[in-house]
Amino acid sequence: MGCGGSKEIKGEQPTPSTGTKEAQPSSAKPVSNGSVQPIANGNAEITEGEEEETGSDCLFISTDPGKETLKIDDEPQEYNHIKPSNETPENNIKKATNVKFFEDWFPVYPTETDTDSRPRTVTHIELNIPSSRKKLTVADIDKRARETPRDQISSFKSLKDYLLRDLEGQTDRERLAVRAIIVWLSVQDETKFSSLPGNEESPEGFLSLLAKKQTLFSTFFTVLCRKFGLTCVKVPGVSKAGDYQPGDVIKKEVSADNWAAVYFENTWNIVHPFWVCRGLFGHKPGGWIKLEAGGQAVGKSEEASAGVLRSAFKEYYIFPNPMEFIHSCHPDDPKWQISNKKISRKIFEKMPYLLPTFFGMGLKLLSTESCLLNTVDGVCLIQIQAPLKNANEIDLWYELYLKEGTGQTEEEKRMLQRENIPKLVAMIRCGDLWQFKLSLPIKGTFKICCYGGPYKSKLARIAEFRIDCKQHKKDCNILPFDPGRIGFGPGPAAAEAGFFVPSHAGGLVPVKVNTKIEITFIVERIVIERTTIRATLYSTKIDQTVLENLVSVHTSEESNTVHFEAQVPEDGEYALSIKKVEQGQTKATMTTSQGKKETQSQFQEKTTTVCNYLLSTLVKTKEKANQRNARNELQTTVAMAPTSGEGLKHGIENIENGIKRCMKQDIPPTDDQIVAAKSKLELFKLKNEVRNAHLRRNIHVTRKTIEKLKTSTYKRICEKEIIDLEEFEKELEKLNRFPQEPPTLHWAIGELANSPVVTEEIVNTVRAFLLLLGEPVEALKTWNKILDVIRPPAENLPLISLTARIKEKEGSNESLDNARLSDVQECLRKYTIDQVRNINVGAAVIYEWVRISVQFEDLPTSSSIRNV
Prior knowledge:
Blueprint: E1 3-10, E2 19-23, E3 27-30, E4 36-39, H1 92-95, H2 138-146, H3 156-163, H4 173-186, H5 203-211, H6 217-227, E5 231-239, H7 252-255, E6 256-264, E7 267-271, H8 273-277, E8 278-281, E9 288-293, E10 296-301, E11 308-311, H9 322-325, E12 329-331, H10 345-350, E13 353-354, H11 356-360, E14 364-365, E15 372-374, E16 379-385, E17 394-403, H12 410-415, E18 425-430, E19 433-439, E20 444-454, E21 460-469, H13 492-496, E22 499-500, E23 508-510, E24 517-523, H14 525-530, E25 532-539, H15 544-547, E26 551-556, E27 561-566, E28 573-591, E29 597-616, H16 625-640, H17 647-664, H18 672-696, H19 699-710, H20 719-734, H21 745-753, H22 760-772, H23 783-790, H24 802-810, H25 818-828, H26 833-839, H27 841-854
Parallel strand pairs: 2-29, 15-21, 23-29
Antiparallel strand pairs: 1-25, 3-4, 5-6, 5-12, 6-7, 8-11, 9-10, 9-17, 13-21, 14-16, 16-19, 17-20, 18-19, 20-21, 22-24, 24-27, 25-28, 26-27, 28-29
Helix pairs in contact: 2-4, 16-17, 16-18, 17-18, 18-19, 19-20, 21-27, 22-25, 22-27, 26-27
């Protein structure tokens, strides 16, 4: 860990605690099925138990161990007229990763149309069944397939009739038929049929062949599809499975594989039957020394384990996206890549080894697209990007391995002793981007296995890379701090703790010796009021007493901002760890000297890591003068932007322009300052919408703004704005949705007389008003004639003024004759007061006066007007 010094700032606190309990950043440990189980404390151990098999590819994949003894035509001649197109299919389900990798979590994309690798479950598939028949769900089809009676598999016809019952005439019948077949196949225990004669005449015979390893799952699946009337081909090729390791040479004799393609809905759809039905459990490749796991040094050789093949329904391999599938499988015939971007076997060999969960999380690889990476001066960088809208819900992690046989010199052997293994990987995040920076102290072959998953959940393998280090990093020193699974940079742990809008969005912060660096967060109000905030600076070289005077924390209660200041005394790398301390009360039973038991209250601290930063004087950025100027201008613009009032709108425009200038200078959108500016911009836009809602005084706008705030990332730091708007909403409700106290009738008449825009609603409302006052229908046929009544010319003034007629009507109990009442109702029957109010507030005042005056009971309401 190195030495450390810290400072803290306190809010209102209870009585000092009698004990301290720190919640360390959770580490992670892999379990037998290839997933990673988070550990609450870095020193804890997990008791490995039997894991429930899931549909995610936490399992390892293998090639089918069977040997083909049957001869079937892989591509019958009658299929020649429907050869694969050179265009990538546009089928929505095919483009989607139709699998649920994590419980109740899916990536969120910027728009609904952004679905290139959008995960969807099969429950998204609509079953188009005539309304006169029972509507089957995918769950119904799966349940029926899994519960198929033994007597239904004696012949292909009986199995077909059973699995496809009630699907005739359905528009997606073929898709669902394929699913029924593969689900049925996945639950079959072929060993129960080993005593039967093996043949291709019945499903039972095929299962016997499978048990005897005399045929392949892909062969049986292909035959089943054809027997069921589906167009299906068997696709030979190679795959990255079984004992494959990133960077391996792909040889047909070692990596041969087979899968299938089924034609329906005008396109070919991939299915890998064996991978759908079977998974390899407990597999461990030998020949590697694990250097790091869970952020801890290990230095232990991994024992090879072949693993066990078991049933494991992996839905991903039913209709996978061809652009994703090509990372695992390469067909012998290029046409079965089912893509307009054909790749050679050599390119396939070098492609990054990305697993289905990688695509299922919506991730993208931004660094070198290869499974075999080379260091530059002992350093290697891997960059992975998540969908922006849910990047703050994701955790990534890693394990690092070294190929056995490396480290033969005395210096290398010393470096590989557990106590001397430095932390070689710095996991740094910036918004939606993760960087795994490897600094390797010795020459050799390394492997990094990356894991990912929702925050605080079990992690699954997402990618593996081999790294060849031909020149070790000089002066490779241990990192000053182990950040655990949180890594370096603001992420979901910061948001959970109530820390938002960081001034530094990236975990790596360039600093200068003896120059202060300030990092700020806008925090939830309760953080300042009820917690202690601590900042600790770590180094492997500097004494704690020196460091504790170089870091400070202070808060601004007016803006709910926490400021952290740090200064480094020498060149090198330092870690700044930000923690939140909460105090809770616990009850303990104590035994007194007299032997009596008493319950006493104790205060206990709970320390939570919020965020870590890696401060480095060694970062050398290469940028042009115009890039540096654009960056400085953006930083100044964000710092000087008004946070309220009329200047807020201009501040938003200035920040947007500053971001555009940076992008124009080829500064990437993942840059620390651009990400931080966008975060501040999002908050400012919310505040501006709150201001506009108050100015517009419109109840609909107000409600939409409240909803937007409540669903925003910044809900917790906009609590005051939400409360204020909800009070404002109640005020508007009292005003019957008028934006202010309802104006007088005389004001309304003057407003309408001078209205520059006149609509049908306005004309008929005023006409009804004047009819109520006794004007003849003939005098109100046009708007000009109506104006002559409400604004008479000087030479034709009426004997009784409009004001007098209004007073007379308000003081009279005389009812209208039926004919005039009918005329008034006819004028207003088409509109609700809401419709009129949206057009003109004055017209709405007159409408309401007429309605009350004649006590209309049959004027249309907001709901009934829709049916008029």
